[in-house]
């Protein structure tokens, strides 16, 4: 995400932008946007299920919130580092769910 955020042509999520520009009452646009967002959440949930995460559905929702939140923060701040911050938050969530994300720092 950080590389994409740094691109000069990055304007955020096209699905969110379409809903914002055309209005939430445009049911066709909203339906497409919801379907896309849900497909990302389901993708995360499936990966989490493969890892044996107990509450994969809730964690998938939290992960998509990190993705969408980092996109919004990048747009407001023009700071690709928001992707790194989301990645670090995701690691915390995944570790708390029992997923080995590597990179554990050893106590000295």
Overall strand count: 0
User: What's the order of the H and E elements?
Assistant: HHHHH
Supply Rg.
16 Å
| DSSP helix fraction | over 70%
* Low-confidence sequence ranges: none
Average pLDDT confidence is 91
| Basic shape | flat
Structural class: mainly alpha
The number of helical elements comes to: 5
Strand content: under 5%
Distance between the termini: 33 Å
Taking the sheet with the most strands, its summary is: none
Topology of helices and strands:
Blueprint: H1 2-6, H2 14-22, H3 27-50, H4 56-77, H5 81-96
Could you please describe the fold and organization of this structure?
It contains five helices and no strands. It has helices at residues 2-6, 14-22, 27-50, 56-77, 81-96. Helix 2 (14-22) packs antiparallel against helix 3 (27-50) and helix 4 runs antiparallel to helix 5. The chain is flat and about 45 Å long. The chain starts with a helix and ends in a 12-residue tail after the last helix.
Précis, in short:
This protein is an all-alpha fold and 108 residues long. It is built from 5 helices and no strands.
Annotation keywords:
single chain, 108 residues, mainly alpha, 0% strand
